[in-house]
Amino acid sequence: MLRYTLRRCGWTVVQLGALSVIVFLLTDLLPGDAATVDFNEQAGLDQVARLREQMGLDRPLAERFADWAHGLLTGDLGTSLVGGGPVSEVLSSSVGVTAALAAMTILFLVPLAVAVGLLTGLRADSRTDRVISAVTLTLTSVPDFVLALLLVGLFALRLGWLPSTWVGADDVWWQRPELFVLPLTVLLARTVCVLSRQIRAGTITALHAGYTVQARRLGVPPARLLLWHVLPNAAAPGVQELARTGDQLLGGVLVIEAVFAVPGTATALVEAVQNRDVPTVQALTLALAAVACLLNLAADLVGQRLAPRTEVLR
Amino acid sequence: MPVTPTRRSVLTAAVAAGAGLLTGCSPAGAGSSSPKQGGTLRAVFPGAGVKETMDPHAQRQFVDIARHKAVFDKLVDLDAALRPVPRLARSWSSDDEARVWRFELREARFHDGHVLDADDVLYSLSRILDPKAGDHLAKNSLSHIDLANCRAVGKHGVEIALTRPNAELPSQLAMTGTPVVRDGWDDPRHPVGTGPFRCVAFTAGRSFTGRRFDDHWNGAPHLDEVQILSAEAEARAAAVRSGEVHYAHEMTPTFARTVEHDSRVRVVATRRSGVQGFALKTDRPPFDDPDAAMAVKLLVDRERLVEVVCSGRAELGNDLYGKGYTYYPDGLEQRERDVAEARRLLRRTGLYNKKVSFYTSTAADGFAQAAHLFTEQAGEAGLKVEITNGPPESYFTDALSTGTVTNHRCGAMTIPTYISERLLSGAPQNATAWRHADFDDAFTAARAVVNDETRTRRYRSVQTTLRERGGLVLWGHPEWLNAVSRTVQGVREAPPNTVDWARFDTVWLD
Prior knowledge:
Order of helices and strands of chain A: HHHHHHHHHHHHH
Number of strands of chain B: 22
CATH architecture of the largest domain in chain B: 3-Layer(aba) Sandwich
Low-confidence stretches of chain B: 1-31
Distance between the termini of chain B: 40 Å
Strand content of chain B: 15-25%
Oligomer: heterodimer
Number of strands of chain A: 0
Number of domains of chain B: 2
Distance between the termini of chain A: 13 Å
Largest sheet of chain A: none
Mean pLDDT of chain B: 90
Mean pLDDT of chain A: 82
CATH topology of the largest domain in chain B: D-Maltodextrin-Binding Protein, domain 2
Strand order of the largest sheet of chain B: 9-10-11-2-12-20-13
Structural class of chain A: mainly alpha
Radius of gyration of chain B: 23 Å
Shape of chain B: globular
């Protein structure tokens, strides 16, 4: 187990290193740079050239990357090309909302998905299962932004019960729980559905597995059977799916933040890409990637613990 | 008019103020009574992330300009017809050559109590022109100011010397990036101006809060507080419809249709707020031949473009910039579609059944749509068009060097500014690559004429030359659409960048 853990941690570091190079190269491949974008529609090529020099964008690619990597290793995320402030400030001022949104989603997601998954799994092919499955399958196929716009149209614009956006609420968002209702609903809709499908399938498999049949025959009480024998085995694919949901959530948050004007990391990232602000893009993607990698690392370790047999297969 | 023997007044406060009263004022809907005091107004603009700044000389986005308008003032601003109107400068006059200008300053107070004087103005000019500041936008257009020879005349007079004659100096001092700052000020984190609101909080990419400044020279605002926020189109639309904000800037015709029967929101549409068109590059074949360019001007179906691209919310263009603005030549016939004549010209210039490249992008609403319509219409006259798409973020800069035909648009600015920024040989945004020394000379000579009538006449001939021989196919003057909630009163129709646009000191909440 320890060797496995160390190996996975090592790989995560390598992944992050490779990712930073790829992101740097990709941002460089984007048409235009911070100087052209900054003066778009307002100035001529001379002024753009002067600004480019001022931003240090006229230096070779390798030199700029080395500078950035050196800063990163000494704990300095660099300076924003367009705002002039430290990138760490952009990160720290936006990460709170996104983290809160993601944490709350996970908090609701796990019990909801487990409950729905178990309910439908235990009563597979009953009327309840068919109704719930129909709903979850439908919701899975609705894109996040469509659902978001539908909900805004109904609950914010028509009924006026909930705020439609976060515009103007950025400093006091933690005091206004109503702001979270619609974004959370949208984030949960798809993730709960996908995850509960996995748990449903896992439950059905575990219920019909030989060891369960045997345990039942030996007179293990149903509650104990469910909690000790079915759930852990049903959860193994669920945990992997949860990690994938984490990745998906990072993408979903991107859409949600845009639709609801949430001042989070994803909004900051989109703006940085539009401004071609390479240091900010680098720092934010690396932070998001680190979260995704850590989530997957955790899922692998938990999955390993839940189903140690995979080690034998390896 | 305060005319002295050696100096001729070009424009006085009285004339301009009178003009200001006549234009742009429209009642803010039924039920607008006398202004009410107090309240916080929330306005939302398209944002630009950390790029947003409180440095008034580095302003670029509308959201910046709106915030700076709350905190700072300019010497001069523009009315709805793009004529200069006095702000911090009470009046101005020039010598016979328009080489030395004198501005008389108003009694105005900065937020820190300091009274505006000539040194503040001189410092502001030197800060704008700072050679080290790459992002000061007005630097280019004000580069002819001869800083060494500018001086204070008494406490309230400023003399601005120029290296070449220029009768348009007052309106150039009203352009983007020209607000007056306090002598020695250089800290955008703590903006101190003479404007109607003092800055109490600012977070780039998100919000700005300004509190009423009671000592403002133009009288204190009605509102206690104004918040100017950033958000994307969908969020702006939802926020103003649900009442979370009172004012949303830059809305689409689709949005205007959606809220037509909405009792909570109304759309403030400003006619003739700029231009939409196509730019033909005139420095290379085929459009180095004015006949080829004329063929394109004749083959476009302007009505259809306006109908489809602007949802009908535009006036027809006549291949001239600035309809409704001062110096726009009157009495020219509207250019109509004439496919037969276009085809004849295409044949004569050898362009018939040949292919030209159109460089477009989604940089602005309707660009790609306009390009496709153009392709259709050109096809009807026998000109083939090949469309390529470019990235929106840097489209306008890229389009300066790419493509034979490109999309063109421009917001509201004075006609001389439009020409000097877009049509002179060395102009920074010369989208039609129009480089003709005789045209440059005719324009600069016109700009140096002090007499209003003569100058207007000379500008007219410059503009008609362009309409006949140039590469601009300007088919529409779109409306500018903002949305306000019904509780907001006192919002006037005004093209962006003019004095009454994004102006919150004269607005109140019912």
